[in-house]
């Protein structure tokens, strides 16, 4: 198979098998258990290896996958000034071969073959590598993983190739608004602070010098920072704690024991001249934002008290009378959040992120004045009770009823926690709120002064006078005037209110008694024909939580672009109206969303279950109450218009994905087309049209959680009443899929203002049978590592390279894609075509071990137990949405894969992937935004999917 380096993975099996019988010395035990949630059934042990590496061992008998995560106390802050981006480049290079396995990507390929995932990231002061894998292969995976940190090769030929990937990654994000804004932030901060270094790196910053090659630079960085005392390791799996300890000793004891520890940062993040300033930033997209930054000292030691969390809650509160509510009523903002911002060992930015109206931009001084008024108000209040006590109560509930997460997620999270928290607090550190720290609150509020503020305004019309060295962002920085500072230090004639007692805080703290113990699947409850109500009282995850899903099938909401645009505006208006009334519900651990989808409008509510029926009632009342604030309508229409115009303009691959969906699925539209519909939309015609959209309706609902059937039936009656559902079934919208014609070359070309070329090839299944779906899923799994290795690692065609299983309303498909900063469309198309031809030719020779591994991995994915209630509810809802009402599609597919022969899969691959099959090419080059390809639609068939 094309460049299938994973076929060379015999050594780890043999080596590990030989070592397994060798006695392994024990590590030094530090803690035999940790403070954990009462809902957490895992067992923990903290040990230290002879080289000083601290390892957290986690025994989870319920998981089928084991996971490992290694966190390093080093990131881009440790980059040399003359090699910025080196930490990030090292992250890339560690996958490019070790002394034991010299070829690149052996470790990730092995993980992928055995049902796992891997990833890594480089942050400011930390780097993290992690993977999961089927438990029986954990030892082999660890053998490969550990060698990344013991004996990486840094071969010059792979350094040269991977440097192209880093350059491609940099170029791909040249027009990314977050990167462009981040660069302004860096260039207006203290140049002596490591935050100002260029974290990504590119071909200009990562160079070979005669006296110091890039290979030497990588080796020096690795030897300096990648040592055991700078690392924390987490192993999670169904293996016993003793087994996990043995694995850690066996594979990680050879990591170097000594090196450097990052020294404390002495330089402040901002100079005096960089505070008390206003910064103008000119974006590429239409934006009207303000970020008011208040620089604080480092807050790492405050984690047991969460003082900034409390301040963020009080200042970002969105209920009646709040700062946000008052600014909205004045027509100055549409959204405000508080407390986010960069933070590190000696700094914390406390940000107010604000979506301004155009009026708000003109009056941003008023916005700032009210923010500082709110801060001064806090400094005069006793925040300990009820405000801190209430937050403390909710955090305690969140910890008590913490739901299990996947092993991979847990391992990564805990390894980072080990670098931040005391050993006792590794698990509970994120949830601790021991007591109100009045002195800390006073100190932090004292820092929140106008004279220290940085006011960042983002809008295309603002005057600018300089450009960043990287990403070419136009900006200006200037001091706030004396008049502005004086105004910010005075209160306005506006009354701001702190939150009152939260009525949504749960009172019922235990799951409701089980009454439906005999069922393991949702039941369809009797009701009116226009309502399909499914119910499942979960017998396994006994927490007082639940999920309510609703799908409102509205034929008149999605049959045209205009109708879809109206439905989206309506959803935003509903969310806007609900925000103030339901903000307390979100604070109290409930989440909700209202959004348009292919067949109508969907609602999802989750979290603590006690008050969810009440929240659902509020949402439904808002959804069918067709009175709205005309001013809010104009703000939302304006914002959506510009968002739709800008969507994916600077992301070629993402744009091709959108075009693919719009081309083949009814009810999917491109942003620019929807924006056109908003140009002539006015409040009066909108108000007249919306009741018509809701005139025909089918409702499907799932009530899944701790609710017994009688509660679900009450919810069903409320739905019937509030939505005026009659006994007459309405015709549900058809879920149409456009059929591609086999042997006919179909293509769509687009242009975007981005210099990269992008190509995607979609291969469509020719039936909706279980066998077709199973075959496409298995093909996607087998193809994935080979496609990435050949087109990304070896040919270096671009940074974004991959393939995906893409089902559309029950019809499977396979998508190949590449985005490149330097390779033309014709060559990219040839590379994809050549890969597919080689793959189909070589598939019959796939070794039996790899064939069985591939089948086993996909079967495991399909049959793995749900790790928590959220995943279970999501799975049930997906099944209901595709009419899999026996909830056994995954099992049926798994059985077919189990029985599938390599010869039969090869036949399907040749029939579905090669040039004569049903395929659609999508391409994108630089140019003015275009909507191309619509003329092809008349040549496609239409399939009405019912499964």
TrEMBL record:
The keyword Hydrolase applies. Residues 55-191 form the Peptidase M16 N-terminal domain. Keywords: Hydrolase, Metal-binding, Metalloprotease, Protease, Zinc. Residues 1-22 have a biased composition (Polar residues). Gene3D superfamilies: Metalloenzyme, LuxS/M16 peptidase-like (3.30.830.10). The keyword Metal-binding applies. Residues 1-24 are annotated as: Disordered. Its cofactor is Zn(2+). Residues 778-877 form the Coenzyme PQQ synthesis protein F-like C-terminal lobe domain. Residues 216-382 form the Peptidase M16 C-terminal domain. One of its GO terms (molecular function) is metalloendopeptidase activity. Pfam families: Peptidase_M16 (PF00675), Peptidase_M16_C (PF05193), Peptidase_M16_M (PF16187), PqqF-like_C_4 (PF22456). One of its GO terms (biological process) is proteolysis. GO terms for cellular component: cytoplasm. Endopeptidase that degrades small peptides of less than 7 kDa, such as glucagon and insulin. This is Protease 3. It comes from Aliidiomarina maris. The lineage of its organism: Bacteria, Pseudomonadati, Pseudomonadota, Gammaproteobacteria, Alteromonadales.
């Amino acid at each position: 198979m094309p460049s299938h380096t994973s076929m060379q993975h015999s050594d780890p099996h043999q080596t590990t098998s030989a070592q397994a019988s060798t006695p392994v010395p024990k590590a030094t035990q530090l803690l035999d258990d940790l403070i954990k949630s009462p809902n957490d059934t895992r067992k923990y042990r903290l040990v230290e290896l002879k080289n000083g590496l601290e390892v957290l061992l986690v025994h989870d008998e319920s998981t089928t996958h084991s996971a490992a995560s290694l966190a390093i106390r080093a990131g881009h802050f440790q980059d040399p000034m003359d090699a910025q981006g080196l930490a990030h480049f090292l992250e890339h290079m560690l996958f490019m071969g070790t002394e034991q396995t010299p070829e690149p990507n052996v470790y990730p390929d092995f993980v992928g073959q055995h049902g796992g995932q891997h990833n890594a990231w480089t942050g400011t002061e930390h780097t993290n590598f992690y993977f999961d894998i089927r438990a029986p292969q954990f030892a082999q995976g660890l053998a490969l993983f550990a060698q990344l940190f013991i004996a990486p090769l840094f071969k010059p030929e792979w350094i040269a190739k991977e440097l192209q990937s880093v350059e491609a990654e940099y170029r791909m994000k040249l027009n990314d608004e977050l990167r462009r804004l981040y660069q302004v932030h860096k260039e207006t901060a203290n140049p002596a602070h490591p935050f100002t270094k260029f974290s990504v790196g590119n071909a200009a910053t990562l160079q070979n010098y005669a006296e110091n090659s890039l290979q030497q630079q990588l080796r020096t960085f690795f030897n300096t920072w990648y040592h055991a005392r700078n690392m924390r390791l987490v192993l999670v799996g169904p293996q016993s704690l003793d087994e996990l300890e043995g694995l850690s000793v066996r594979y990680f004891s050879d990591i170097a024991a000594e090196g450097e520890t990052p020294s404390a940062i002495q330089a402040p993040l901002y100079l005096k001249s960089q505070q008390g300033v206003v910064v103008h930033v000119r974006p590429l997209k239409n934006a009207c934002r303000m970020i008011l930054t208040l620089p604080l000292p480092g807050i790492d030691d405050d984690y047991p008290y969460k003082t900034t969390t409390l301040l963020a809650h009080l200042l970002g509160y969105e209920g009646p009378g709040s700062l946000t509510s008052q600014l909205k009523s004045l027509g100055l903002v549409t959204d405000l959040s508080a407390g986010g911002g960069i933070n590190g060992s000696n700094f914390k930015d406390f940000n107010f992120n604000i979506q301004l109206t155009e009026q708000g931009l003109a009056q941003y001084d008023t916005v700032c004045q009210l923010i500082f008024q709110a801060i001064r108000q806090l400094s005069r209040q006793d925040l300990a009770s009820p405000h801190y006590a209430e937050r403390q109560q909710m955090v305690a509930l969140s910890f008590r009823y913490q739901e299990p997460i996947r092993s991979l997620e847990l391992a990564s999270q805990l390894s980072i926690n080990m670098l931040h928290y005391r050993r006792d607090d590794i698990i509970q550190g994120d949830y601790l709120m021991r007591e109100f720290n009045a002195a800390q609150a006073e100190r932090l509020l004292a820092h929140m002064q106008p004279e220290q503020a940085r006011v960042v305004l983002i809008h295309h019309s603002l005057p600018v006078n300089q450009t960043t060295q990287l990403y070419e962002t136009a900006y200006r920085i200037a001091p706030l005037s004396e008049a502005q500072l004086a105004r910010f230090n005075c209160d306005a004639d506006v009354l701001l209110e702190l939150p009152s007692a939260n009525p949504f805080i749960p009172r019922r703290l235990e799951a409701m008694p089980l009454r439906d113990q005999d069922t393991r699947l949702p039941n369809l409850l009797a009701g009116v024909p226009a309502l399909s109500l499914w119910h499942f009282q979960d017998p396994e995850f006994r927490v007082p939580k639940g999920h309510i899903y609703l799908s409102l099938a509205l034929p008149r909401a999605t049959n045209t672009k205009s109708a879809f645009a109206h439905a989206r505006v309506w959803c935003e208006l509903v969310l806007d109206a609900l925000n103030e009334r339901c903000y307390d519900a979100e604070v109290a651990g409930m989440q909700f969303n209202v959004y348009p989808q292919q067949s109508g409008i969907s609602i999802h509510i989750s979290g603590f279950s006690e008050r969810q029926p009440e929240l659902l009632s509020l949402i439904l009342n808002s959804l069918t109450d067709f009175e709205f604030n005309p001013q809010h309508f104009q703000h939302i229409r304006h914002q959506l218009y510009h968002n739709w115009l800008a969507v994916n303009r600077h992301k070629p691959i993402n744009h091709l994905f959108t075009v693919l969906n719009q081309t083949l699925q009814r009810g999917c539209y491109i942003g620019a087309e929807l924006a056109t519909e908003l140009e002539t939309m006015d409040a009066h015609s909108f108000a007249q049209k919306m009741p018509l959209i809701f005139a025909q309706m089918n409702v499907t609902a799932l009530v899944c959680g701790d609710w017994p059937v009688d509660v679900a039936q009450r919810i069903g009656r409320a739905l019937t009443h509030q939505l005026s559902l009659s006994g007459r079934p309405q015709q549900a919208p058809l879920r149409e899929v456009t059929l591609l014609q086999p042997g006919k070359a179909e293509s769509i070309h687009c242009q975007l203002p981005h210099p990269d070329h992008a190509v995607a090839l979609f291969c469509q299944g020719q039936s909706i049978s279980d066998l077709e779906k199973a075959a496409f899923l298995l093909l996607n799994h087998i193809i994935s590592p080979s496609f990435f290795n050949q087109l990304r690692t070896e040919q270096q065609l671009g940074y974004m390279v991959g393939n995906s299983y893409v089902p559309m309303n029950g019809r499977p498909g396979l998508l190949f894609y590449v985005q490149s900063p330097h390779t033309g469309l014709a060559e990219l198309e040839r590379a994809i075509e050549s890969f597919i031809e080689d793959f189909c030719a070589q598939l019959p020779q796939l070794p039996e071990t790899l064939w069985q591994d591939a089948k086993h991995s996909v079967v495991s994915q399909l049959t793995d137990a749900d790790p928590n209630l959220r995943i279970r509810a999501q799975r049930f809802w997906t099944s209901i949405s595709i009419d899999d009402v026996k909830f056994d599609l995954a099992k049926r597919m798994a059985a077919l894969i189990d029985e599938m022969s390599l010869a039969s899969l090869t036949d399907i691959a040749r029939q579905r992937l090669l040039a004569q099959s049903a395929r659609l090419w999508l391409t994108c080059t630089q140019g003015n935004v275009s909507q191309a390809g619509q003329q092809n639609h008349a040549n496609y068939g239409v399939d009405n999917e019912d499964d």
